[in-house]
Design goal:
The complex is a heterodimer of chains A (about 450) and B (about 100).
Chain A: H1 4-12, H2 18-36, E1 39-42, H3 46-51, E2 64-68, H4 95-102, E3 106-111, H5 145-152, E4 158-163, H6 169-175, E5 178-181, E6 201-206, H7 209-219, E7 248-252, H8 261-276, E8 280-284, H9 289-307, H10 325-338, H11 344-364, E9 370-374, H12 392-396, H13 398-405, E10 410-418, E11 421-428, H14 434-448
Helix pairs in contact in A: 5-6, 7-14, 9-10, 9-11, 9-13
Chain B: H1 6-15, H2 22-39, H3 75-79, E1 85-86, E2 89-90
Antiparallel strand pairs in B: 1-2
Classes of the chains: A alpha/beta (about 450), B mainly alpha (about 100).
Chain lengths: ~450, ~100
């Protein structure tokens, strides 16, 4: 399998050059993107940028990467998959983009997503649905669906996504790739088109755990342009494992209600592997996800309603009449939850319930090191199945919402296929425990070789 | 009949400067009732003894000096995406209450 480090080694040994790698990648994209619809915009300067690289010391020198279309990229159209921003050319880079560029990464293009990140399938994109590489009749998940589909198909196997609650982990699970959602504040939100500002967390989607860790190393750290960015020191995610003793992994019965039997089976098969590696499983009690759906729906829609007010069509983009229905739907409920007379009953109540979720995790993390659960209630759905359900996204994301509400880090790992579709499990850790998540995920990856799972059309970069 | 009247839905839309078609107003009135019904289970959670959480990692009141930095865009760049501009300014319609 081609990883960032194997690619870097081939550059350093002068066996390959980024220009050739990027050219070949574009040739593949020309063939496959029209069907996959993973990209909205290509970076036409990518080949030129790649050709200029002569030094390969930097951590991502000449590494091609796909970027979700909600990261502002100087001179490269950024729409968040919304027609309202159809003509928006950002005059600055998001901090994540600045750091990736400084590390030598080559931006290949901007990937499709649910418009404004509102959704879990890419079906709300104003530019059409991305297809799941395992089955073109199915959605890739979302909102970072274009990034997940690109990574699964190897076009390229490295991408940036962002998660408010589920937008990295859910598409990672449905496309059979690794999705790492960092602690809130670990990675700067500056220059990322805001969805829920108290929740938004940028993070990588990759085929291997080491690649996710490497990208996280580059993008993590304090940023003075994001007032909620953490000053907590960034550990070396790539150093040898810091797991000195066998871990206790918590599992809560509440996370299996209504979950597809095939997903549950795959989950327990994965847990057997953790036991085989010497770790212990322990029953814990988490607040039922049905409450997380409610808390998350209120918080997210309130924040969406407030955040989308900045799109006035005066400084950039089209007038507010250009919003498509899903954005209006969410803003409307948010405006209701924040309006006088209802604020206490909905928004304040949800923020208090959020404290209960935090306390619940704090309590359980005194008994276990990490928590495991299925990532999603089902494998990837067929295109169109989400229609007529105004809360589809919130329901599909129910198993990741509590950890997002609490600001915790999590990682979704592929565990296998069921009826030809990928299934993912997630590991959730305490605040800033990304190193532990990476270390345990690496053990699991080495044992299961999950990156050998590939869709029918896979490009080995 | 929805818990939300069409007039109420339009009033909410006005708050966030959205113009809804008749069809949309009707759709949202129904959906909002459905969603509000779904989230009512929050009432089952005992929150009397807790304070709300607005920030999950414990950051409080961060300030920084207000001065020019590399984040500030020169006027030409800041105006680049504006549909209407004049003399380094964004051009807007007159305010609703002014003549």
């Amino acid at each position: 399998m081609t990883t960032i480090s194997s690619l870097l080694n081939s550059y350093r040994a002068k066996k390959r050059h980024p220009k050739e790698v990027v050219e070949k990648l574009f040739a593949q994209l020309e063939k496959h993107n029209p069907k996959l619809n993973a990209y909205l915009t290509f970076n036409k300067l990518a080949i030129k940028e790649a050709a200029k690289i002569t030094q390969f010391e930097r951590p991502l020198a000449g590494i091609p990467i796909a970027i979700k279309d909600n990261f502002c990229t100087t001179g490269l159209r950024t729409t968040a998959s919304a027609k309202l921003l159809d003509n928006f050319i950002p005059p600055y880079d998001a901090t994540v983009i600045t750091r990736l560029k400084q590390a030598g990464a080559i931006i290949i293009g901007k990937t499709n997503m649910d418009a404004w990140a509102h959704g879990s399938s890419t079906e709300t994109s104003d530019y059409g649905t991305t297809k799941n590489p395992y089955d073109y009749q199915r959605v890739p998940g979302g909102s970072s669906g274009g990034s997940a589909a690109a990574v699964a198909a190897g076009l390229p196997p490295f991408a940036m996504g962002s998660e408010t609650a589920g937008s990295i982990r859910l598409p990672a699970a449905w496309c059979g790739v690794v999705g790492l959602k960092p602690t809130y504040g670990r990675v700067s939100r500056y220059g990322v088109i805001a969805m829920g500002s108290s929740l938004d967390s940028p993070g990588p989607l990759t085929r291997s755990v080491a690649d996710a860790a490497l990208i996280l190393q580059v993008i993590a750290g304090h940023d003075r342009f994001d007032a909620t960015s953490s000053t907590e020191a960034v550990p070396n995610y790539l150093s040898p494992s810091t797991i000195k003793h066998k871990l206790t992994i918590g599992i809560s019965d509440d996370y299996f209600e209504g979950v597809d039997k095939r997903v549950v089976e795959q989950f327990w098969a994965a847990m057997k592997i953790f036991e085989k590696l010497g770790h212990t499983l322990k029953k814990i009690k988490l607040i039922n996800p049905k409450y997380s759906i409610s808390i998350y729906t209120i918080l997210q829609r309130a924040e969406v309603s407030s955040n989308l007010c900045r799109f006035d069509g005066i400084r950039f983009g089209h007038p507010r009449s250009a919003f498509s229905q899903q954005a209006k739907r969410r803003m409307m409920l948010g405006a209701f939850a924040l309006s006088s007379g209802y604020y206490d009953a909905y928004y304040l109540k949800a923020q208090k319930a959020r404290t209960l979720i935090l306390n619940n995790f704090k309590e359980e993390f005194t008994k276990v090191d990490l928590i495991a659960a299925p990532t999603t209630p089902t494998p990837a759905l067929k295109i169109g199945e989400s229609e007529n359900n105004p809360m589809f996204g919130e329901i599909m994301d129910q198993l990741v919402e509590a950890s997002s509400i609490a600001g915790l880090p999590g990682i979704s790992l592929p565990v296998g296929l069921t009826a030809g579709l990928p299934v993912g499990i997630q590991l959730i850790g305490p605040w800033f425990s990304e190193k532990k998540l990476v270390d345990l995920s690496l053990e699991f990856e080495q044992e299961t070789q999950f990156s050998k799972i590939k869709p029918p059309h896979f490009y080995e970069i | 009949m929805s818990k939300f009247s069409i007039a109420e839905v339009n009033l909410l839309a006005q708050l966030i400067q959205l113009e809804l078609s008749e069809k949309e107003a009707k759709l949202f009135a129904g959906e909002m009732e459905e969603t509000v019904g779904f989230i009512e289970n929050l009432l089952e959670l005992p929150t009397e003894a807790v304070l709300p959480t607005y920030q999950t990692t414990g950051i409080k009141n961060r300030f920084q000096e207000e001065k020019l930095n590399e984040r500030n865009l020169p006027p030409l760049l800041a105006l680049k995406n504006a549909p209407q501009k004049r003399d380094n300014y964004f051009l807007i319609k007159g305010l609703g209450y002014s003549k």
